Amino acid sequence: MNFEFTNMLNHAKSFLTAVSKAILILGIAVLAIPAVAAAPSWVATWAASPQPVWGTDFLFPTNLPTVLHDQTVRQVARISLGGERFRIVLSNAYGNQPITVGKTTLAPTEKGSAIAADSLRTVTFAGRETATILPGASLFSDPVALPIPALTQVTVSFHLPNATPISTFHWDGRQTGWIVPGDQSTAPALKLKEGSVQSTTARPLLAGIQVETKQAARAIVVIGDSITDGATASLDQDHRWPDFLATRLAPHNVAVINAGISGARLLSDGMGANALARLDRDVLAQPGAQSVIVMLGINDISWPGTAFAPHSPRPTLDALTAGYRQLAEQVRARGLRVIGATLTPFEGALPGTPLDNYYQPAKDALRQQVNDWIRHSGAFDAVIDFDAVLRNPAHPARLAARFDSGDRLHPGDEGNRAMAEAVDLKALLPDLAASR
Q: Which of 174, 197, 214 is a domain's end point?
């Protein structure tokens, strides 16, 4: 028995020794395998939320022809994050027929309609230089290899060879674009012959630009109305409050996507679809989105009774708060953080215009109730108190004079800058350094 036991013990020791050697060899082999770098990913770096084109009976002109034919559209956009490869997104969201897109190019902007010709790139779609955008659909381009730094203006030009009814656009781009005859998509500078060119601040078809990033990158999306869209920000200067916020966040490798639409509302359609109807497309579908800022509601409160909605009833506080809660829950269901923003003062808004009854004391009382709910309800992961930032301390129902654009509703450039500087970056993304 002793001999057999000793023999068994020796066999066990030999087995364990062999296993140990195997583990050691395997460990060395594992350590010898180089670390696999994170795969590049696409992140939204700029966007303009699509809107349906309205008729001639609306209060504002569209600033676009109803049909484009054998014309080139050239638009300028400032990206948030830079990179080595980009792709563009075109939208026919509100069209009822296919749109043929011809020659399309991407290039850094030089000045005005001029581009950096030596960096011009042709944009293709599934390897072809022409493509079709189906009714109600979007069209992604192929990746375009073009190194561009963060916070750079880029120019997208596309030729529309066929008669193209314009049904989808973004009304207030706060950036000059051009519509010129023929195919000038590769022109270093457009031939701006008098009578043959139209400049416009509207954005037909162009809805987004995305960047491929090697390092992990994220995006903040702001869903809002004209205050976010930048209605009175200086033209061509990228002075909307999300632009200033993008400047703060770019060093953190975080993009800011402006999903503002002038005239937008939380609960009702207007100059665009209501917030919940466009949430998936304009916010949740943006690649890399991690947090959402919600700044909506002032048009819900103030449109009723004006020329915009003369017979519409004003929403109740309960209806508004139910809308905010539903939006917040849908954002969180996608694993994103949601931040509420208070509504800014507007006493005396839009004087001398057909909308000079936009403000009324009862409307302001509802705004203050909404703000109190936003601050204290706990419906949001964090709150940005833009009301406190922009109001006149001596007259809290009004914008402070230094922040007022002059229409007593929209902040000017300095107001936009103050809004962006008031955002606690850690409230947007808690893992960021506590920077203000």
A: 214
Please provide the DSSP assignment of 209-234 as one string: EEEEESS--EEEEEEESHHHHTTTSP
Q: Is the pLDDT assigned to residue 355 strictly greater than 60?
A: yes
Note the pLDDT tens digit of each residue in 121-150: 999 999 999 999 999 999 999 999 999 999
Is residue 424 helix, strand or coil? Answer: coil
* Res 193 pLDDT > 90: no
| Whether residues 206 and 223 fall in one domain | no
Query: Which is nearest to 384 in space by CA: 435, 342, 345, 431?
Result: 342
Which CATH number covers residue 291? 3.40.50.1110
Are residue 145 and residue 238 in the same domain, yes or no? no
Is residue 417 within 8 A of residue 423, CB to CB? The reply is no
Q: Tell me the whole-structure pTM to 2 decimals.
A: 0.90
Domain C-terminal end among 214, 229, 257: 214
Confirm whether 134 is domain-assigned: yes
User: What is the C-alpha separation between 399 and 26, in angstroms, rounded?
Assistant: 69
Give the per-residue SS3 of 295-310. Answer: ECCHHHHHCECCCCEC
* Mean of pLDDT values over 265-290: 97
Measured in residues, the chain has a length of 436
pLDDT in tens, 167-192: 999 999 999 999 999 999 999 999 87
User: CA torsion, points 259, 260, 261, 263, in degrees to nearest 10?
Assistant: 150
